[in-house]
Design goal:
Elements (H helix, E strand, L loop, with lengths): L10 E2 L1 H8 L1 H11 L6 E4 L2 H8 L6 E5 L8 E4 L2 H12 L11 E5 L4 E9 L4 E3 L4 E2 L2 E3 L3 E4 L4 E4 L7 H19 L4 E12 L2 E8 L6 H5 L11 H9 L13 E8 L25 E5 L2 E4 L2 E4 L3 E9 L3 H15 L15
Antiparallel strand pairs: 1-12, 2-5, 3-4, 3-5, 6-7, 6-12, 8-11, 9-10, 11-14, 12-13, 14-18, 15-18, 16-17
Helix pairs in contact: 1-2, 2-5, 3-4
Length: 343
């Protein structure tokens, strides 16, 4: 509607945004584009889920079709666990309509990369690759979350970025264009780098959180377009030439509330936050806080992002991020200690 009224818009059309809002639709686009992705079946009942599971070996991956704030994917090691997840989705309807249908998908092993591009719907320009840490606990254990920390840029094996551009990004953008889907915004490819190459796990149609916290400061706005100029260009259907700060390394460590992701504790006092003095290398971004009588309390799941910036090394960026963590840590807060350490 904004576009129809002549407003310049950075962001996909509603149809384009379905790449994120429906995993079933996303899978269909991946298949039509011919990109590598895990085999899957659409299921909508405990019975159809268990029947489809006969085609796969454990662990089983069950993904709610709709949006679930990072909580819609169940990875189950046993059939009994899968049955329980299917009952939660289809019978208890824990995710409401978002979980009325789901994909049962083959498990892919490897390491994950978040690959974001800006696109005008015809061509795309890549952002530096980032690595999210989706599981709640150290060593990639515990439940999936919206993301517990990111480092960027990550170094990838020679030729991999080119392969991702050629075999994943280009075919998907071509497929959107072929279908006449207007897409002027960020397209986020959640990839699993398997021994057979990059496999698409999911799309987001926005900057990731916490990917954005590490990617936005990497743009060298002195030597090339600013973000404002880049977004304006995309909104006008052009693709900007982005220049990246080649030396900069960024780490973002998420500080989550006690009880996250199931039932985050709200109203917990963060006593040290009001006295924290940020620097350009070590700062804290608010995500789920509320100001109360001169201080701050928690008001969401992922409460704060501790960000570290270094022009020297990722290790230094991580040290800066963890320095911020230690300066504002509150009782009950959940932080992974191994961000940037796992592959
Ligand atoms: P998604 O929302 O589809 O990206 O899934 C959330 C997280 O679940 C991913 O970031 C992965 O850590 C994990 N995941 C999703 N699909 C698979 C799969 N087929 N095999 C292994 N892990 C997966
Ligand atoms: N960090 C993943 C997301 O924003 O969906």
């Amino acid at each position: 509607q904004l576009r129809e009224q002549g407003v310049l818009v950075f962001g996909p059309s509603k149809e384009g945004a379905r790449l994120e809002s429906s995993k079933i639709h996303a899978k269909e686009i991946m298949q039509a584009a011919g990109v590598f992705t895990a085999r899957s079946f659409v299921v909508d009942s405990v019975a159809s889920c268990l029947a489809a599971a006969r085609e796969f070996k454990p662990p089983y991956v069950l993904k709610a079709d709709g949006l679930a704030a990072g909580k819609g994917v169940f990875i189950e090691k046993t059939l009994a666990g899968l049955e329980q997840a299917a009952r939660a989705l289809f019978e208890q309807r824990v995710l409401g309509d978002a979980g009325a249908r789901a994909l049962l998908e083959e498990f892919s092993s490897g390491y994950e990369v978040s690959h974001l591009v800006l696109t005008n719907g015809k061509t795309a320009v890549a952002l530096p690759p980032a690595r999210d840490h989706k599981r709640l606990l150290d060593g990639d254990q515990g439940p999936n979350t919206g993301g517990m920390g990111v480092v960027a840029p990550v170094s990838l094996p020679d030729g991999l970025l080119e392969k991702i551009e050629r075999d994943v990004v280009a075919p998907v953008v071509r497929e959107l264009d072929r279908r006449g889907i207007l897409f002027r915004g960020v397209l986020y490819f959640g990839l699993m780098i398997t021994s057979d190459g990059p496999s698409v796990l999911e799309f987001n149609t926005r900057f990731g959180d916490p990917e954005a916290q590490t990617l936005l400061p990497l743009l060298d706005e002195h030597r090339g377009p600013t973000w404002t100029e880049a977004f304006t260009a995309i909104a006008q259907g052009e693709v900007p030439k982005l220049v990246w700060n080649e030396r900069r390394r960024i780490a973002c460590v998420v500080m989550a509330a006690e009880g996250y992701p199931d039932s985050p504790v709200k109203g917990a006092v963060i006593p040290k936050l009001k006295d924290f003095v940020p620097t350009t290398e070590s700062y804290v971004l608010h995500a789920g806080t509320e100001k109360r009588s001169g201080g701050y309390v928690t008001s969401g799941g992922r409460v704060l992002n501790a960000v570290g910036v270094s022009e020297q090394s990722l290790d230094e960026a991580l040290a800066q991020a963890y320095r911020a963590v230690e300066s504002v840590r509150w009782a009950g807060c959940q932080v992974r200690a191994d961000i940037g350490r796992t592959v």
